[in-house]
Design brief:
The chain has 330 residues and is an alpha/beta fold. The chain has 11 helices and 15 strands. It is found in: Cytoplasm.
Length: 330
């Protein structure tokens, strides 16, 4: 916390400047500058000083920087895009991105297009990368949630695809019944809640349950590495449902995704290919992908190894920062 002297309303006030690149586009709907001014000017204490949460104000300032960017066609590397996995690449699992990461992304966005590609839904990307009044889709040029089955370009939604329409209700119910019976009989140290999470383009299965705390997630991840809980679960599903044409992909600490074969993270590349065919669209001839689960069976493997991308394996968000800084001289 820090103290900032309160301004007299009769005096001229200097607004906090928003970092902006030449010919920058401004997202006028964010209202971030006003939020910062409210923090600084309206929360006075009895000593005629303001009590300000410095980390929050700094993060809000970074949101301003990220929302200030040149048009895609005017960036230095206009035919390059960097796509990032979320958990353990941009953020620690289910945590918010650090100010250092947000600052790096804001500087990278001045040079080339940037995008997220995660297996989770957009709500989780918002929780980990956005803010209370800041939509995550305004901070990245492309947001691909659920492997791109839910997609946004410059804040505008692209065509979505539905898992339930693809598989059909009867086969879906049969699949879920098997999963829940298997979880019920599974002997693991603890179980919590939300074992199956239905998403637009897939389902997410968690043997421990997605309601587990951070500490419980860490403990399960260690237990899973020792006993192969998720890989064995997946093998049983493959044996039971070979006819459904499904892919099973381990991601994060506690779960795995189930989706139609071909609907892995490479699905998001179809949106980039469509971008090139639009009037005035850009062709991304260089596509960098950064992810941590790039091993075979991990949910980053397919896009990491795809011939259309340049794959980068990262150990954690700190490693992402190191690699991006080195690659782009930031």
């Amino acid at each position: 916390m820090c103290h900032v002297q309160k301004m007299n309303p009769s005096n001229s006030q200097t607004a906090i400047p928003a970092a902006a690149a030449p010919k920058a586009q401004r997202n006028k709907n964010l209202g971030i500058e006003k939020k910062i001014q409210d923090k600084l000017l309206l929360t006075a204490n009895q000593d005629n000083f303001l009590t300000v949460d410095v980390s929050e104000v700094n993060l809000l300032s970074l949101y301003i920087k990220m929302a200030s960017y040149p048009p895609l066609e005017e960036r230095e590397l206009k035919n390059t895009i960097c796509l990032f996995d979320v958990d353990e690449t941009l953020t620690k699992a289910r945590r918010h991105a650090t100010p250092e990461m947000m600052d790096l992304l804001s500087r990278l966005r001045q040079k080339c297009a940037i995008g997220t590609v995660g297996g989770s839904d957009l709500v989780k990307q918002q929780e980990q990368l956005g803010g209370p009044d800041v939509n995550v889709t305004s901070l990245f040029d492309f947001c691909f949630a659920e492997n791109g089955l839910t997609a946004f370009r410059l804040g505008e939604p692209l065509l979505a695809t539905s898992f339930i329409q693809w598989i059909g209700e009867e086969q879906y119910k049969e699949l879920v019944r098997f999963i829940l019976h298997y979880v019920a009989d599974l002997d693991i140290p603890i179980k919590r809640g939300t074992f199956v999470e239905f998403r637009n383009g897939m389902i997410n299965v968690s043997p421990i349950g997605r309601n587990a705390s951070i500490e419980e997630r860490n403990a399960f991840e260690k237990h899973d590495l020792e006993h192969g809980i998720r890989p064995l679960f997946i093998e049983k599903l493959k044996e039971r449902f070979p006819h459904l044409g499904l892919t099973y992909s381990i991601g994060g600490q506690i779960s795995f995704d189930i989706f139609p074969t071909g609907w892995d993270k490479t699905f998001c590349l179809s949106h980039l290919e469509a971008e090139a065919k639009k009037a005035g669209g850009l062709e991304y001839t260089t596509i960098h992908f950064f992810g941590d689960k790039t091993f075979k069976g991990g949910n980053d493997y397919e896009i990491f190894s795809d011939k259309r991308t340049i794959g980068h394996t990262v150990a954690d968000p700190a490693d992402t920062i190191v690699q991006v800084k080195k690659l782009f001289n930031l």
